[in-house]
Every structure is written in structure tokens, then in C-alpha cells.
Amino acid sequence: MKKLTLILSLMIALVGINANAAIYLVGTSPLGNGWDPSTGVEMTDNGDGTYSYVANIDGDVWFCFADGLNSNWDVFNGTHRYGPTTGNNQVITAETWTTTQKQGNGSGSYQFHGSGEDYTVIFDLNNLQFIIKGYVAPITYDSFTVCGNNATIFGDEWNPANADNDMTLDATDGLYKLVKNNVEITASTLYYKVAANHAWGESWGNPSGPDGNQDYVFTENGTYNLTFLFNFETKEVSLDAVKVQDGPEIDPYTGNLYMVGQVNDNAWNPSTGIAMTNAGDDDTFTLANAQIKDSGDGYGYFSFMAVLGEGSWPADGYRIGAAEDATLAVVGENNAMGGFGTTGAFKIEAGYYNFTVVLSGGENGTLMITAGEAPEPTVDDVYIIGDVNNIGWSATDGVKMAYNEGIYTAQITTQNQGDLGIAYFGFTTKLADPESETAWDDIAGFRFGPVSEGAFVMTEELLGVDCTLATDGSYESIAIPEGTWTVTVDMENHTFAITGEWPDTPTPEPYTGDVYVLGEVNDNGGWFPNVGAKMNRDEENNLYTLEITTAGENEGYSYFSFTKQLAENDWENGGWDEIAGYRFGAVSDGDFLVYDETLNIEISLTDINYQAFKIPAGKWNLTLNVDDMKLVITEVKGMRGDVNDDGVVNINDVTALIDAVLGNNWEGLNYANADCNLDEGVNINDVTTLIDYVLGGVWGE
Question: What pLDDT is recorded for position 12?
Fold first, then answer.
């Protein structure tokens, strides 16, 4: 019984977790960010256990789902990934529900082919299934109106067309609100709903309430401040009703006065209001050069309090604001206050202002606002680091940029990297201590660069153009030819620009040097910068060729790319840095998957973003044109059943296949030839088929 109770408790806890989970798409664009498990795209929570994402899909995409992100693939696969229940690459068709599962340590993905139209991906976390539908435009709402059974509150009863009861969106918490202050209420039960678009077509209340209405019981007669709340995401409707309390005397008022809201760094914190200055024993309060911050709609919102709260709002009788919520305050004019007991906020365009409140200047006080001045900005140092001014990539040395009126400027001379004629550089607001043993780690949080997937390639057409800098911690570098350049950085607008004379680009001589295949091919032993399979050069056609064997070490796939030079050192001793300028690979967001449709055609290569090729186990011919950066991959057909690749099929192949299937060790064996029953997989059924052939001399159907 105790065990059953524990299981039920765990199930309830898991349901609670799922109800608030965030779901991400991880895969190739647009259903992900290039198979990066730390930057998947977040799906929209529909509030009912389903999540959706709209994207235009043109061609093939590969993707999976996740309930969390992590830069470590093992942690991501083992903890967060949802994928196919069978197979590694499941092909999905539109308008069909597909069952998924938490992968454990798996790494399967889905494949979908789009026709250049908008699609909606819907993930059902409750039932662990998903569907891809043709895009349906959401219903748009022009208004939300509160209506109910009390004409004193609403002007008339149950009238969704009464615009006086329209709600407004509060950008501070994302809720729609309708404020009714100083309403005389007789003890009774209020029934109400929120209707959309001034009609009864769609409305929300309490699904389990009488006639689907929400209700609120007033137990006492009195004057109330009412705030109706509507959460569009959850469709929850509620009412905050506060009985008005007597506040301090307003005429004259000589106590304290505080501003709260999007003013300076308050952010609507009732315990840290911004104190206004009382010049003497009078009722005039001032605050100079206060910053009103943008709440998201171009305006900032604020009101006032006579006392601070201790972690919560003080009694409403000690708050003073506008008579109606979201009242636009006019600069240079006396704005009427609502008096103590009103909680409505004023709003004004974001900026710097001077505020003067006179609490005897009118029935409930007046508010005067004049233009203020922004404080002098704090200027950070900005350095250029990289292949500039003979510095090289150093965390302790850089070119300090000059600052003038918000713009940083520096003139640099770039030095090429290797024989490519290209230099790379980025930016940082801090250099490391020359004595530091962790220099790059010390400045990791201070580096920044362009918005780019891989290095940002500067072209002649981009000279003088404002290009975007990343603000999320990304620090990709800028790739530019050798030359002298003027670089400007605008930190406020997050842009940079480069000017200078673009060098002439001579026609390059045909490449005649060496080319090596790096990665999990032949006897390379894996990814090492000082080990590679050397390609053969056809001097007449200047093509490089090589037959490679891939064992499918990684769940049936192997990975490889190219380099013009091998390193003298291994990866632990800086070998990868030695050949960074000589590597090249696929033009791809993430690893380039080789499958039937990508065989026997030219595949584009690049020496800037050298993604690896992902290829199944088998034998393959590579034909490489280095000058045109094109690669053609063809399959080397093998002999069915010749597992040990000795040219004949006999009992030795049976023994080799049994050992490989049981031990999952394909070293020296031909995986493609081992698919004896031709079902595109290798398992114990292929052993049975091979034994029948060796004994009978005929391949079974």
C-alpha cells in the first residue's frame, strides 16, 4: 500500500511538472537553431498541455522536441530529448498524429518535407504525441469587455457592446484590466464575464460557475475600488475588490511621498519607492531628472504612496494616483490627481522628467511634469582583439578604441591567417591580466561580436554599412581580407561598421598541395588534428579522390571533413589551433547529412564554416574540386554477405557477422555487405539469412 501511495505521489508530481513545462524544438532551421542543444526555439504554451510553433518550411528539416536545453549533448539526450519510438530517423507526414517518447540516452530525430508554406507544429505533452498541420491564422481580438449583472458598476447589465467597460493591457504583468474606483456597492453577489470583440461570440468566466459566469460575493455595503483581471493565456477571469480606507488628510499633507512604478529602478516594488523631496513644512513634493522606463509599449507607468510597504502594498488609503488607470500625463500642464485611495497609474513616454506634486493644488492634488536631463553616460573601454596590428589572438592584448559622443573608433591593420589571406577579429570590454593562467575564461563575459552563425564574412558591399552586434553573449569573429580598416562601434544601438579600401582580388592559382580527410574514416582512429587520410591528386583534372570506409561508430553514422595541412601536435597540445586556417567542410547549419538524394551530386564546401559530413556506415568514393570547393560522394557497392571483405562468401563471414552483432564491433568488417536480408539494418536476422545462403547457395527472399 505504501509503495502504491508513493507511485501515485510521484505521478501527481510529474503531472504538476508537465503542466508548467517549457517545450523546445531542436533541429535544423526553422525548427531549431542548427542542431544546437543549448539554443532551441521555444514553442508557445497553449495552456492546456499542448504547445505550438508556426514556421515556413521549404524542403527537408530534421528535428526533435525537448523539455529543457543543455550545451552537453549527453545531458540533453539523456534528460530532455523527446524523439521517435522506433528507428533513428522517422519520416513524418502532415496532418497525422505521431507518438513520441522521452529518449533516455537515445538521439533519434524526425524528418519532415515542407512545400514552402506555413505549418503549425503542435506538441501534446499530456499524451506524448505531436502533429504538423497546415497553418491556420489565429482569431484576432480587437477588445475585451467586462459585463455583468450590476448596472452600478457597468452602466447597464450584460452588455458586451459597452466600450466604457473595455479592458486595457497592463504591460507590467501581461494582464488585461478594467479599474472602477470609488463604486458604492450593496452587499450582494456579482456575476460577470469577459466578452471578446463587443459580442457574445466568445466569452470567458468560470466554466464550472452558474451559466459559466464568474462570481464575487460582497459581504458588506461600502465604497470599493474594483480591478477586473483577465489572463488571456490561461483565460482566467478574476476580480480584486478593495474596500476604500480613509487615508491621511490631503489639505495640507506634509508627510512623506514616494513614486512607484517604472521610475528609476523601482519596477513597482512597494518597499523601495523613490522618495520625493519636501522643500519645507508644506505640501509640495519634487523629484528631479527621474527616468521613466519603457514598459514595452513605449510608455512607463507610475503612481504615488504616502508610506512604504514591507514586501507588500500598503493600505490603499495611503496610495494616490490617477482617477482612471493608464491616464496619459501631459508635460507642462497641471494633471489632476485622483486623491488618496485611488490606485490608477499615470503613463508617459519613456524618458527623463522632473516631477512636482502639490497635494493642496486642487480637490485631490495636482501633478506637474517638465522635461529632465539624462545623466552623463558611463563609458566602458572597448578593445579589438584578433589578427590585428600584429597582436594575434591574445586575451591580454588588444587595440583600445577611442570614444567620442557615443561612438568608439579605431584604425587597424589586419594580418592574414595561414595562406588564406583572411584575418579574424572581435571585441571585448575587458582584457585579461598578463599573469593570469585562465586569461580567456577571465574575459568570457566581456567579449562580443557580430550576429552570425559562424564567422561574419565582411564583403566589399558591406563596407560602410551598419551591421548588428550580438547582445546575448555570442562572440563570433569578423572575417576580413588583409588590409587597413577603420572600425566604428555603437554600443547603444549594438552596431558596427567598417570602412577602408577593398583589396584587388587576383585570380588564384590552382591549388596543387595536399588534402587530407579528417574524422572517422579508414584507419584515422577518430578526430585527431595530426592524423588524416591523404587524398590522391589527379594532376590532369586537378581533382582529389579517395575511397573511404565508415564504420558508423555513432549510432550508424560517421563524421568527416577536410584540411589542407595536418598538425604536428595532438588536440591537447594545440593541434586544432595549428590547422584552424586550413580546415574546410560543408556549407550547412549543423552537420551535413549524406543520404540517397545527396549522392552523385555536387555539394558546396566552405573554408569559413567547416561543418562535418554525417554519413552512414559503408564504402564511399570522394571526388573533390578544391578550386571550386565542390564535393561529389558516390557509394562503393559491395558483395552481399562478404562481411570480412575478402572477396568470397563462406563460413568465415558467418563467424565474423555473429561476432560483430553480439559485440557491436565492426572494425575491419564491411557493414554494408552485412545487410544480408536487405532491410537496411544489421541484426540477428542477417545471420540467419547468411547461414541459409552458405548452406544452400541461394539467397532467400
Answer: 37
